[in-house]
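Subject: Interface between my chains keeps coming out wrong

I've been trying for a while to get a sensible model of this assembly. When I model each chain on its own everything looks fine, but I need the whole thing in one frame so I can look at the contacts. Pasting all components below, labels as-is. Any help appreciated, I'm running out of ideas.
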Amino acid sequence: MTDSRPIDCVVLVKQVPDTHNVTGEAMTSNGTMNRSALPAIFNPEDLNALEMALQVRERHGGTVTVVTMGPPKAADILRESLWRGADRVVLLTDRKFAGADTLATSFALQKAIEKLGRYDLVLAGRQAIDGDTAQVGPQTAEKLGIPQITYAESILEIADGRITAERALDHGSEVVRCRMPCLLTVVGSANTPRPPSARRRMALKLAATSAEIPALRERWPELGTEDALAAHLQSRDLLIPVWTADDIGLAAESIGLAGSPTQVHKVNFVVLESTESKTVEPTPEAIAAMVAELVHEYIVG
Amino acid sequence: MSEQLTDRKGAWVFIEHRDGRITDVSLELIGRARELADRLGYEVVGLLCGHGVDDLATEVIRRGADRVLLADHPELAHYRTLPYARVAIAEARRRRPEIFLVGGSPNGRDFAPRVASALRCGLTADCTDLQVGNYHVKRDNTTYENLLLQIRPAFGGNLVATIVNPHTRPQMATVREGVMRMPEADATRTGVVERVIPEFEPGDFALEVISHEARHSTVKLKDAAVVVAGGAGITDPKEFELLRDLANLLGGEVGASRAAVDAGFIEKDHQVGQTGTTVRPRLYIAAGISGAIQHRAGMDQSSKIIAINTDPGAPMFQIAHYRIVGKAGDVVPMIIKALRERSADQGAAEGAAR
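Reply #2:
Try treating it as a single job with all components included. I did that and got this:
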């Protein structure tokens, strides 16, 4: 059943605002949304992709490398990835990346994955909850020149350089076999992501990017000077590598806003409509009157 | 046999099909492409990949296309990303369409980004409306005329964004199923069916489909005239049975919020909302659904909304026409009773008239 060769996985993840839990506080009085009230979270389906990669490693050996592109704060989800079991993480961050649409994002991810070296599988969540586009995975696969399996729900087998996986579609399911390397986008029903391990959290609590060292030192002044702390992290392999556009050799015309063919023409906030509405008491009489009205208006009956 | 390339600019539609039938969203897109093309003087082109699908090409023309690019090949019998994308990329490079629309189904959303990436063109996901308009860029005082305005909810449905691609062609978009009107078939329409020969490369067959299993959903939420939906306020499976009774009585379907699906009360194909089905019924009864934006995005076009919730501050009340503050388990039986009494009265009245 198992392939003799270890499988190296790269997992693409994103930090997103938690749009699925828009609470009352996130709504302003005129019904629009207060973005800053939303916490930043690990994109849910990216956790499913990470879990799938960790299961591949358990079964076949190999490595799990997690890559994210985002602001410096996105290091949070890389730390979380380490705590959940990733071997290695990389943060792609650069002001030049700002304003990237899915095409520009996929160029950066392509370059980063190629810089990482050999890989068998690239995994990503099906889509991110802030944009819901589901485009970055296939666009990255196209640029890497590898096939893609989108909407992957389970891996049935990895053998002889090929992966057999099941896709969950609206109208049913499909089992496909594909040569590796290839890219999978993973749906939320694929698995239950394991929680961060307490042991790893302790061992890796200091994992940080170099930009985070001053903040780390403020929290733990006993760790010494920033240089000493940097040397400590380096020696313990706790320094999260940060790559810029230059580090991955990305041409200026492919980056950020300049590399994004789509432009936002305008944005309208969704304002909750105050429709003509009635309050109906929860009594049999009031309900019967409402039903009579609906019948009268040919809504029912 | 094959016609010459036309000089007319094209509004293309990817024709997705399954079990010998064109999918609804593809037909809806032909309808909207027709409207856009009439306004812009373009021709509507259906891109149809498959094997033995000549009858579908005829159907594409009857629904409003001027031309069908038909790639018929055994390797195209079942949808696969790379062979299908190969055909689309080659034909788009050759013919340079202005607009290329793809249904927002799983396979449409698999296909479109692959093609857009190869063509290095912009792609907007999951649009709910498409229009034509001008786009003015202040910085270089340039106006781009007659661009495709791609309108989509963003940020979990809290924003509606209008996206344009001023510099790249085609202007590509995937479009959500059920948001555009399906055009009637017109048997008198004529058009050109042009056969195109796929030029595959060996790497295109890296993936093979081993098996596929259709799950024929019996849930017809999308077209239901009445939807009775339950959410987190339903705490007992028996209460969900009440919703089914009410839906049956009204000739409707049972819907659910994500909370009810996650709680295991009902299967996922009943889910209404951004990650479920978009519905536009005559009547939507939201029983114990607080009304998160993801849910509202899938039902706020309903003609009449009845909201039942114990929390007077539930967002659903803000879009509801009838607000009932109370427990769904208490209120739903009252609605059922009122409806039964009415139909009993009606039966008696009809009996007396006879």
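Reply #3:
Confirming on my end. The longest helix of chain B spans residues 328-353.
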